[in-house]
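Extended Data, panel c. Modelled sequence:
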Amino acid sequence: MTQPPRPLAVSIGDPAGVGPELLVEAWVRREQSGLPVFVAIGGARLLAEAAASRGLVVPIETVSSLEQAERVFHRALPVCSDLDGEWKPGAPDRAGASLALASLAEATTLAKSGKAAGLVTGPIAKALLAEIGFDHPGQTEYVADACGVAAQDAVMMLAGPQLRTIPLTVHVALALVPALISVDLICRRAHIASAALQQDFGIEHPRIAITALNPHAGEGGRFGDEEARIIAPAIERLQAEGIAATGPHPADALFAAHARGDFDVALCMYHDQALIPLKALDFDSGVNVTLGLPIVRTSPDHGTAFGIAGTGRASAGATIAAIRMAGECAGRRAIHG
């Protein structure tokens, strides 16, 4: 693995969710999973309690700097920050949401300053954050704003061992999608994706498959005209601009095993069109990667899972994958600039 030059900063997420227990398990599995050095931002006491609940032996060591974290990582999970709170699995409250937000803010600052090689964010509960004044749709938009990047230029990519997908439209009602897609939006997302796949994933000539909106790619206009009116012209423009884009592809066939080797990422028209195949194929190893930022940011592609927090049933696979992917991307940036 391409190692990052400095530790990764990991926010702990909502302490009532599965984030803390999966983070400590990631440290336990650091060697077998080939993980880079990472530091938890806050939560020393609650992380120790979360580890105990899973029967894990996890020494916790509070550090004053990320340089110190590098020196202790082999023997203890380094925690940078005095932030802490109660570990109450399955019982979310405003205090926990405040802790999650404070951890996110400190971790983002460390990545922005260059002290951390990248940012990995633990899962949060958006509704609880809204109650304490968090006015962003999610962590992606928060991090983008902190980095001075317009929300529309922070592109969410879901990545797993078998598939990468990008939703063109994200958290909006399905009925609104046809009015939101445009030639300009498709082209903007595709250019950001192509640049990020080159810079962070080492893919020299990224291939982008662009899905249709309607069944059977519109069936020649019988099921809608967005393919002919918007999507196909966008693909033509992208091809003229040197982007290896293809489509519009009927989404019901694009993700079959024999087709997945023909593209590096699928640009999909709406949320579920992108997330259903990714989660069906790579649920326990899916990573949410934010493209278009000046920093590396990843997150496990699952939520807080309050219902199983503290039971030991949650898989650490996606957390481990998010840390590993952030390290690989940060390492490539360090080498290639």
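The chain has twelve helices and twelve strands. This feature is highlighted in the accompanying rendering.
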